[in-house]
Amino acid sequence: MEELTLKLAHDFNQLIERFDRDCALRDMTPETIKRYKINLLIFADYLSTKDIDGMQIDKSTLQDFLHYIKYERKVKHKTMGNYFSSLSAFYGYLEFEGLVSVNLIPSFRKRYLKRYKEGFDDPERKLISVEEMSRLVNSILDPRDKTMAVMLAKTGVRRGELLRLDIEDINWNDHSVTLKPTPKRSNRVVFFDDECAIILRRWLSVREKLNPETNALFVSYQSQGRLDRNGCWTAIVKYAKRLGFHNPDSPRLEDHFGPHCFRHWFTTWLLRNGMPREYVKELRGDRRGEAIDIYHHIDREDLRRAYLAFIPKLGV
Questions:
Q1: What is the rounded CA–CA span in Å between residue 270 and residue 154?
Q2: Residue by residue, what is the 3-state secondary structure of 166-229?
């Protein structure tokens, strides 16, 4: 039995390696591939302890795994979703390769993990007021951290999109930023206003003195290389916790404030200030789902003017 368990684990791990290469061919980001692999290896380890062949899983297996991560590993809802997102992508690959007859994960996720949303974002995610956002960004003295917070608030970009920016991605002529390509985003151009420009220029003057060996916009003070996701998370949460916006001990999503909350704030306050939904959708870079979206183009200058008219001022 022990030899069988080792063989199953070995075969499953080989499939994970093949899946990694497939993800790279599909132009997924290294961060996404790394997260997928970590989650899949944990799942593979779980299967090996139960002597279950990963190619023969059923609904009962998935229910038991969900129980395991929820009550034994005590992970949060978002993390549970990440596990099953990884599994869905993996078993979708196995189905494509003809190694399994059907991918069970999408229907399982819909039943056990789906959070129905209204509008663009999760209504349970923490939303702070414009005045509170002003307090937050103005409480940050570190020029790099302040710039990250202001740019997240003013552009609505995702944390990974922000961290992949290079200095040459900034267009000072029309105060725009061109993001790196990603499967999640349709529109790669976002704008920033005069407030953001001031903070950004201050950070660039400090960054120039650091002389880092990278053209990354945001760098680590320790390694002088590109700042990673954890570094960004730590920087943002530190200030949010200080002002009482982030409670790490609470199990409720609305008591936590992390980098993605800026995207929620950006979306909500543009809508509340009266920006048309299609303009907000364009700035967010949401995937175009309907045929009309594919052929409907918003003039860039119109979008820029609308952005400047509706983006909240933070008094930085």
A1: 10
A2: EHHHEECCCCEEECCCCCCCCCCEEECCHHHHHHHHHHHHHHHHHCCCCCECCECCCCCCECCH
CA distance 23 to 45: 21
Name the residue ranges covered by the structural domains of the chain.
2-112, 130-310
Residue 110: predicted pLDDT:
84
Q: Which element (helix H / strand E) includes 249?
A: none
pLDDT per position as a tens digit, 246-302: 888 887 778 889 999 999 999 999 999 888 888 999 999 886 554 434 445 688 899
Give the contacts of 57 (CB within 8 A, at least 6 positions apart).
Answer: 47, 104
Length of the chain as a residue count: 316
In terms of Cβ atoms closer than 10 Å to its own Cβ (0-12, 13-18, 19+), residue 133 is buried
In CATH terms, is domain 2-112 a member of 1.10.150? Answer: yes
Which superfamily is assigned to 130-310 in CATH? Intergrase catalytic core (1.10.443.10)
d(CA 300, CA 296): 12
Alpha helices, H only, the chain: 2-25, 30-49, 59-67, 77-96, 105-112, 130-138, 143-155, 159-163, 194-210, 229-242, 260-272, 277-284, 291-295, 300-310
